[in-house]
Design goal:
Layout lengths: L2 H5 L11 H7 L14 E12 L4 H4 L12 E13 L4 E5 L6 H8 L7 E7 L2 E2 L2 H7 E4 L11 H10 L5 H14 L20 H13 L5 E4 L8 H18 L2 E5 L5 H4 L4 E6 L2 E6 L4 H7 L10 H8 L7 H10 L4 H12 L30 H18 L5 H17 L10 H17 L5 H16 L5 H31 L5 H28 L3 H17 L22 H14 L3 E2 L13 E2 H8 L6 H26 L5
Parallel strand pairs: 3-8, 3-9, 6-7, 7-8
Antiparallel strand pairs: 1-2, 1-4, 4-5, 9-10, 11-12
Helix pairs in contact: 6-7, 6-8, 7-8, 8-9, 15-19, 16-17, 16-19, 17-20, 17-22, 18-20, 19-20, 19-24, 20-21, 20-22, 20-24, 22-23, 22-24
Bound molecules: adenosine-5'-triphosphate (ATP).
Length: about 650
């Protein structure tokens, strides 16, 4: 059983947190290994960015013009400290641009910017990889498979963390119970093609997906944004239940909470301009600000009032600065610093977290996933197959398009006779199949991009290895691509009247399968690289268009300038078209046309025709090998790109 499983406390076993006691008496650090929550603390977290840039002329020393923009540093977070005890819910609040998301992401190891300061888990310096085992992060937007039901979504998620069926079943049941999703367990998540869960239910399911890993620490980025007040209340209540019953430590940023929601947190961290304005229980907020000489007007919500009070963009800047300057000398700050000191947390070298050395501290050797890579692949394959079978966007829409295109090709080039004058028509039909059926692989992009977001969420939370994902994707993709090639290839092959030998038909379908597989693998690289759909479409269209130019149909390839002839060797379309042509024309003699139209008054050997294209010596099986290699290389590139860049850091 994994360490994660060991730490799991069933929902039914209630965990009570003496929050008031902790606040006033400053209890000793919780070192009880049975406790499922984490003691999470941070001290003097500072994040800075370089702003502005000098002109290229001044960089190169050509100009000392006054137009040169000063390079400077901006502090996004300035010495922010705090503690959350097991079983507590912390809200990070503040006006827009105050640094809430940056703080959450810094604490959760999700920022690319260097983070300075001390971050500790159970009193020990944080180790990036071990941290993933204990902490999970729920993003602001829900990235879920729309075709899976609530129960399926949670079950598949649990399979990445539990090795026994019993563990999986109990975690799924617990998650549905605590998140109020029991009645929706058989409802699909929903999206473009299915009606499904409401926004609030989806958000709760996103929490559930992380909850089944039994995290000790849960981060949530603006979990209530976009929800109506009832859904926001339900969600926060669920989070509070999770904290209370399991001892899970919860940290979330929150935007404009209602008064009821505001009062549901145990600790409140108020930020303004990247600095702390207040840290402590929400019910003591008024007292703190009262001591600074501010009192709340009648009939005003506390949450709204404090946010307005510390808003330097639309409020009194001097007053905000007074509040921020007063914080380090306040009673609450004193309590916090004493607690941090008690835990031995200072910003000395041992606790220093720097972007350059995130894995250098203790625990690096403990790197492991909760389940083995073969098992992760197995789960991903089963989930992938189910999604492909259910979600029309992944395969069935494309299946329809390919079948219709194949029928169209058949209608246009219908039952061509095997005559010499039809050789050009056969060649053009093959060109169209090799060029346009491959081009249509662009349509896989929306599905790949949607899945990429799910991959990033799961990978960033340490759910599985990138290699497991890539292998599983290939295992799921290949049979469906073969199905497309078989259906579309068979229809157009017999309608057009290509070579009637069964072996040649099989090779045609095989070549079409390989070309679609390579094209999809290339689209996977594009999907991994591009941030937006529209950029991916443009990039895909350009690449396929470029490959078509050197396919060998429009111009004999040896007529292209020597300095660009090499391009064909990286062009998928060249290998597929050459293979199709060789398959169709080799070892055949095309009879004279009945109407004796020049230039085909005599029988024409297939080889003679192939020679005009430069394909007479093509080794078609060799080209199949090249295409298999291309598919593998593209998938390796996509995997390496995803491993390197899609870490979930912003
Ligand atoms: N990578 C970055 N480079 C430059 N500035 C940044 C970067 N990340 C954040 N900032 C700036 O830091 C400040 C805090 O941003 P952050 O997103 O953390 O605020 P926020 O409180 O979460 O805002 P909101 O509530 O509007 O989402 C903003 O002024 C933002 O422009």
């Amino acid at each position: 059983m994994s360490a994660v499983e060991n730490n799991y406390t069933p929902y039914s076993e209630s965990y009570t947190v003496p929050i008031e006691e902790q606040q006033n008496d400053i209890p000793a650090p919780n070192t009880d290994s049975e406790s499922s929550g984490a003691l999470f603390a941070w001290h003097n977290i500072t994040v800075k960015v370089t702003v502005g840039s000098s002109s290229w002329k001044s960089k190169l020393g050509f100009s000392k013009s006054s137009k040169t923009v000063q390079v400077g540093e901006k502090l996004i977070l300035n010495s922010v400290s705090g503690i959350v005890e097991p079983g507590q819910v912390l809200f990070i609040m503040g006006p827009s641009g105050s640094g809430k998301s940056t703080l959450l992401d810094s604490l959760a190891d999700r920022v690319k910017l260097p983070v300075y300061g001390a971050v500790t888990l159970d009193g020990h310096p944080k180790d990036a990889f071990a941290f993933k085992q204990n902490a999970k992060y729920v993003e602001q937007f829900d990235h879920l498979f729309q075709s899976l039901t609530v129960k399926e979504t949670l079950s598949y998620a649990a399979q990445f963390y539990c090795n026994s069926e019993e563990c999986r079943a109990s975690r799924v049941e617990d998650a549905m119970e605590i998140l109020g999703l029991k009645n929706q367990q058989d409802v699909k998540v929903g999206g473009v093609f299915f009606r499904g869960l409401s926004g609030g239910q989806k958000r709760r399911l996103s929490v559930g997906v992380e909850l089944v890993s039994a995290p000790r620490l849960l981060f949530l980025d603006e979990p209530t944004s976009g929800l109506d007040s009832a859904s926001a209340f339900n969600l926060i209540q669920s989070l509070r239940n999770i904290a209370r019953t399991r001892g899970t430590t919860i940290v979330c940023t929150i935007h404009q909470p209602s008064e009821t929601v505001f009062e549901m947190c145990d600790q409140l961290l108020l930020l303004s301009g990247g600095r702390v304005a207040y840290f402590g229980p929400p019910k003591e907020t008024l007292n703190h600000f009262g001591q600074l000489g501010y009192s709340i007007p009648e009939h005003t919500s506390v949450a709204e009032w404090v946010i307005d009070l510390i808003n330097a963009d639309f409020g009194d800047v001097d007053s905000v600065n007074r509040i921020l300057d007063a914080w380090p000398n306040s009673e609450k700050a004193d309590l916090l610093y004493r607690r941090l000191k008690q835990l031995g947390i200072t910003d000395n070298d041992e606790f220093m977290v720097k972007k350059q050395t995130p894995l250098s501290s203790i625990g690096r050797k403990d790197v492991h996933f909760s389940t083995s890579m073969p098992w992760q692949t197995n789960v991903l394959v089963r989930r992938g197959f189910l999604n492909v079978l259910r979600n029309p966007a992944v395969i069935w829409l494309r299946f329809g398009m390919y079948v219709m295109l194949a029928i169209l090709i058949g209608i246009v080039w219908l039952r061509l006779a095997q005559t010499a004058s039809n050789m050009q028509n056969f060649a053009s039909a093959l060109f169209y199949v090799a060029a346009f059926m491959v081009f249509m692989s662009i349509s896989v992009l929306p599905a790949y991009l949607e899945e990429k977001e799910i991959f990033i969420r799961e990978r960033a939370n340490g759910t599985y290895h990138v290699l497991s994902y890539q292998v599983a994707h290939f295992i799921v993709d290949a049979p469906f691509v073969f199905l497309l090639a078989l259906a579309a290839g068979t229809i157009c092959y017999w309608l057009v009247g290509f070579n009637s030998a069964f072996g040649r038909y099989c090779f045609f379908v095989w070549t079409l399968f390989l070309s679609l597989l390579v094209a999809e693998s290339m689209m996977m690289v594009i999907a991994a690289i591009v941030p937006y759909f529209i950029v991916g479409i443009a990039m895909g269209a350009f690449v396929f268009g470029a490959f078509m130019c050197v396919q060998g149909f429009f111009i004999p390839l040896d007529n292209i300038g020597w300095w660009f002839r090499w391009f064909r060797y990286i062009a998928l379309n060249y290998y597929s078209f050459a293979s199709f042509m060789k398959n169709e024309f080799s070892n055949l003699v095309f009879s004279p046309s009945p109407d004796y139209i020049p230039p085909y008054p005599n029988p024409v050997a297939g080889e003679t025709y192939l020679a005009q294209f430069g394909f007479a010596t093509v080794n078609a099986w060799g080209y199949s090998g090249v295409m298999i290699g291309m598919a593998i290389i593209y998938r390796i590139i996509a995997g390496v790109w995803m491993w390197w860049f899609h870490t979930g850091k912003h």
